[in-house]
Queue: 4 jobs
Job 1
Amino acid sequence: MIDVKETIAMCINFIEANIFNKISLDDVAMHCKISKYHLHRMFKSLTGEAIMDYVQSRKLSASINDLIHTRMRVIDIALNCGFDYEQSYIRAFRKKFGHTPQKVRTGQLSLRITEKLNINDIYAVNNSAIYKPFFVFRQKLCLVGTRHKIMSKSGDRAANLLGRDFFYNHREKIANAVNPEVYFGYTDWSNEGYIYYVPSVQVRDLSKVPPGMAGVEIPAHKYVVFRFVGFFRPDDINGRQVGRLLVHMYSKWIYSSGFTFADTFRFELIDSSLSKDNYCELDIYQPITELNKSL
């Protein structure tokens, strides 16, 4: 079993210890005792940034100290940061900061730099984790699926079973699916004591809802999205485990963020084309609004 948080911590600490050495993805993966494919997927899914892009950003940010506080030649700073050529360093520096190293050295500029990733921003339970959320605006969304009333106490387990049944046995009945490989799990908690859960796929419109199924029209919203990453099959997602991670992120982020819930629903999204036997991503979309706009 992969401990996601421990693996990321090993990765970050190795990068920091070698910030002025030339390192590759193979080097980091070997140190973490994980395949470079899995390390890349894990890091990018959680942080939204490729691991080697992060490495380069950290190197470039660390080089600013030498630019400002020493008289080292630019070529020596470049070599010191693991770049093979001075021009490679200058191009990368300008791409990240919008200015050449020489301009930064001589000018009065403010730069947005990349600091060491804070491992405490990652909340993990065994072989799954959630990182800081990101924001998405989505236009109106139409879903079609099977609608189920679930008592709150049995919600997690029941939703898992219903989702698998829909995905493998019923989604092919929906003729106008936008992408049948993308699963939506729509949860409506507007009623006390129970929820309505709709395992579903996105459709172009609600003109062709199959008999026995239900359509849901979701208005345009701004969402905060929590990305859950697990090293197991999507079928093995543990609803209670996701719930623990989600409660943590709600308490750590939403309740102190200046936002509040904009509606009494949320949905989860799984793109099965990204999933493997030992990897899955689940995005949880929570509609939000700024607190002062809800008053």
Note: The chain has a mean pLDDT of 88.
Job 2
Amino acid sequence: MRIIDADGHVAENPSLAIEAMKRWPEHVTTSTDGRPRLRIEGRYYPEDQGPGAGVPVEHGLSTAAGLNCRSADGVLGDADRDHIDTMVLYPSLGLCAPTLEDPEFAAGFARLYNQWVADYCRPTNGRLRGVAVTPIEHGQVAVDIMREAKDLGLAATLLPPALKTRNLDHPDLDPFYAAAVDLEMPLGIHGVPGFHLPKIGVDRFTNYIQVHCISFPFDQMTAMTALVSGGVFDRHPDLRVAFLEAGVGWVPFFIDRLHEHFEKRGDWIEGGWQRDPQEYLQAGNIWVTCEPEEPILPGVIDVLGADFIMFASDYPHWDGEWPESTKHLRTRPDINDDARAKIGGLNAQRFYGLD
């Protein structure tokens, strides 16, 4: 069975930050408090204090013995140890890109990051595949940069769960979605607390652990509501979107909740809500990652099938299970081999268009 990690992360080595500070010294500086984090446009990344606090940078990575995540060769060795054949790497520091406010700097940083991650992955013979970032708040340039990212061979483009003043169904984003379809570029929705993305529910908490409990599922429910009820998949029926790092247990509940609102009050949505939510899942618009140890996974497969679920490790972050993140997927007896193969790699191969 080929195992594809549909949501790992690159732990960017210092070369990215050093280059950013060299190019934009007025925007990117080291922390003034002596801690190993950056100050970008006057804000700390990560910000680990106050409402919606993020993870303290010193505690973000797994403490498992032998972790070697600072180079591509190290990551490949870690992948071998965990029985992973291919890893799709979402950003860590690069998750800041959608939040950057100066348009010229935002575009420049996105281009720098995309070239950096493409160069990082290139020597690995396709085993490591990078994910692009774009300055999504700044209009047409986000489309241009996504096209460039496709030429760089990046496997997907990051999309935040919401924008500062717009949800993901805003008409201004339609050219971006149309370009993603034209490029056959899948989109991965990925939030992160402490990175100055819109706060969805987490503004009531200042303790990172409390924030972490709710941030990812709230983010993904918000994004799914916008894309489904807001008609994005009707306007762009070939769009592929993955809802990441919230597990899979919430999906049957939320698809059913959306179904009830479509059935009883769908006509309250301006322009009319076009289709039952489950139809978008069946059509290949909606994809989700799981943690293989989730006890509810067999129930999700029973209710919704296995064709939209992808394995994710969250490597090398503190809440992942490396070096045993694939153990449950490979050994648990309560899913059949057909579902195991789909979740393990076949679905991710289709979603990302991997060889």
Note: The domain at 4-352 is CATH 3.20.20.140 (TIM Barrel).
Job 3
Amino acid sequence: MFRADLNCDLGESFGRYQLGEQKEILKYITSANIACGFHAGDPSVMRETVKLAIEHGVKIGAHPGLPDLNGFGRREMKITPQEGYDIVVYQIGALNGFLATFGEEMQHVKPHGALYNMAAKDSELAHAIAQAVYDVSPSLVLFGLASSELTTAGESIGLRTAHEVFADRTYQSDGSLTSRQQSDALITDTNKSVAQVVRMVTEGKVISQQNTEVMIKADTICIHGDGDHAVSFAKYIKETLESNSIVVSAVF
């Protein structure tokens, strides 16, 4: 029996700016990565997203990003490992405050956007982020790109670590994600996207853009909640996984 977690980035609205259909997509996912105010989100959005996730029985994680609201945290910034450590601790603390008001515990931490991609390749930054998570609570699960520097750092420090794959992204031959600056970074064909996910979970393989077979570990699958058809895609991927004898449940 195969098993996989379905996670989604949520809480990314800000003030009057509304992004995504949270209430609907929460019906189909098992883990929510909630923005903590640096790349998206605000205190009221964080509280409401936590409340909705709890109501739907979805596990909650912090989604710390770079301090870049205008760039949605997707622009790289030159930060030191210590700065990486500090911004992760700060944002985990912000979300933990809201969780405490509901008597709920945090399941995981997943860096966002450029911070996530930088940590996938930079071992020093990856270690700083893993250390930040561990120092806040060794019981937290660290989500990172499958077989990256971030998952390596998490495992070496003693954290439970979930190797993450992406439903709508293409891969390079080294196992990294295709840069969003390239036209072929996203998979827009729903059937192709879901077929890729099923193969990653059941066979541990993905075909790269260089047409090579790459071994990959898939503990958790990221789906994006801000697309035009995000809710219908979430429903479809969950149903397809289950029809392929894959149990959809939180990571641990």
Note: Residues 81-102 form the longest helix (22 residues).
Job 4
Amino acid sequence: MIIPENLKPADGRFGCGPSKVRPVAVAALADVATTFLGTSHRQATVKNEVARLRRGLAQLFSLPEGYEVVIGNGGTTAFWEVATFGLIRDRAQFASFGEFGSKFVSSVKAAPFLGEPSVRKADPGSAPTLVAEAGIDAYCIPQNETSTGVAVPIRRVEGADEGALLLVDATSAAGGLAVDITETDVYYFAPQKCFGSDGGLWIAVMSPAAIARAFEIKESGRYIPAFLDLVTAIEQSRLEQTYNTPALATIFLAAEQTDWMLANGGLEWCAKRTAESAGVLYDWALNSPVAAPYVVEESLRSNVVATIDFDDSVDATAIAKALRANGIVDTEPYRKLGRNQLRIALFPSVEPADVEALTKCIDFVLAGL
């Protein structure tokens, strides 16, 4: 099946991670290739880029006094282990409503030095709430569940024990959804989604209370593997560097994306842009005779990751294959969810006009099938 060129989006990348990297950012990286790539990460050339990224993120999230941007290697998966060793004192409560939230739960359950976590679950496509519970010193929740396209509001847990932290997995939300950072203690993410970069890096916006907790646990004598030592990451970030060698291109692309976001109006602009794209896609699905948003409750539908179900009369796999054959890629659903659906990234780099074009392409494919 050949989709007419006049129907196609200008850029056919709709993947949820790695996500679309803006060509202008790649060109900017190429411009500094001989002076930046392949140079020491302990020297000013690279440290200046780390500083640019940290400053940009501080501005993007309007950081209050005392909050810090901390950077380390390994991505969000590594940060779950970092938090397990260096942020949870004894017992954590989790909101688990998809593949990625459940993985953090598994890390904590496996840690012999931590108490049994409290887990509040909901079926995929919906979300639980965190509830105050005596003895819980860390509450953990994804802002956006990348596997299902569910997004939840972020607020502190009313009635929680004094000093309890709120850890927010913002991997696919940060930079695309609004957030009040003062409602969080650790807002952590990786840059291969809204920040239009590659993976392999974790970034955590940390409150003074979270930083103090990291030092407290380190000083308690708990064994912490060097690679997962949060205090080391904090101290190295203050020096505008990472504990060990980072992927330089990843840092540069994330800094470029952050500057682009700020130049266009910051987080407010980013959130409006993703909301516009989401409006186009969800309206199309609601008006389609064979499609519907997977997330039934409108308030939980994500503006950065949209999941669209199809009737049994339609094979969503065939739609995704036809799109891919025409250069419109990565619309397949999350593999473990097992739904007859498409999953489409609506990150800030994705043009709303391209989302509109995508819906026309899907209609064309449906007509052909």
Note: The chain has ten helices and twelve strands.
